[in-house]
DNA sequence: TCAAATACTGGCCGATCGGTCAGCTATTGT
DNA sequence: ACAATAGCTGACCGATCGGCCAGTATTTGA
């Protein structure tokens, strides 16, 4: 076997960063190839097509979620909520670039000059963020919120991993009304 | 002036629906023209380019937000939070297709088979959704959450306007820990 | 009645997209 | 030493994209 000067791993590394930065549709095969230092044709030697690259990037997330669900299956109440927070923060940190991909196109649109800086209004909402709800909308709410945390943290990679993990866990627990132990 | 058989309003109506359904990048000028029943060249007679269509669609949102901010400027505490909820729900309903545009690409990616159905995990998070935080992440959190509400409600347009408005307002107030009076 | 202006269109353009293919190169096992 | 093969590439393909333009039809005000 000839030495692989440009490996699959290099391609995946370039792809996940570019997808996270410019979105899936906003990243061309040529962009990835240039970043990885190889030709576009080399990409399609290692992967059947562009979509297969994204598929491989997202593939590990599914089983990890399934495993977390399994760990939560036997738990109830506060213990379950605490384990869910810990597990989700851990997953979000390990797959933070993947999560960023999901939010990239939102980023691109939300930063358009026609749209307002929503901070001032949201500030007032968060002044008294609390309450309880089992309405179906809130599940989407909570899911998007978790993604929102990662969106913020993903661009602050200078923060040490462990510090970030502790901060996120503490913030999530506090927001859920659980003791931050 | 010749009679406008295909007006600017028709084009904008087609565009906002298609952008909301398939995203900005996922909608071509030809798609819009076909839906509006005119030629692609006619689009570019009424609008300087594709981006100008999106710009015009998003344009009214900014001033409305600014006006809401002005109304909130003199308020404090619970009164401010309540007015913010009412105003945001109202804005979200009036511009629900615009908001859907922002979330469309998230939709496309989040429904990939490699990704898990996050409902089971999020269920446990929402079991005890409460708490309080003034961390900077939470502003993004709250903003994404508000978008999440709309994402859910936008696909349920069969619900009467007033019912939806009341439900959203009540849910938001309850989640903020304010009396739903 | 008739130029002027508006509304609109088919056809075309260059650029870029994802993807294919024949062939080159370097390393491998024998 | 030498096929075999993995890794990689330049060149090219058809499709599609946003955008341009000359030209046509319709309605207008004078």
TrEMBL record, chains A, B:
<keyword id="KW-0238">DNA-binding</keyword>
<protein>
    <submittedName>
        <fullName>TetR family transcriptional regulator</fullName>
    </submittedName>
</protein>
<dbReference type="Pfam" id="PF00440">
    <property type="entry name" value="TetR_N"/>
</dbReference>
<feature type="DNA-binding region" description="H-T-H motif">
    <location>
        <begin position="28"/>
        <end position="47"/>
    </location>
</feature>
<dbReference type="InterPro" id="IPR009057">
    <property type="entry name" value="Homeodomain-like_sf"/>
</dbReference>
<dbReference type="InterPro" id="IPR001647">
    <property type="entry name" value="HTH_TetR"/>
</dbReference>
<feature type="domain" description="HTH tetR-type">
    <location>
        <begin position="5"/>
        <end position="65"/>
    </location>
</feature>
<dbReference type="InterPro" id="IPR050109">
    <property type="entry name" value="HTH-type_TetR-like_transc_reg"/>
</dbReference>
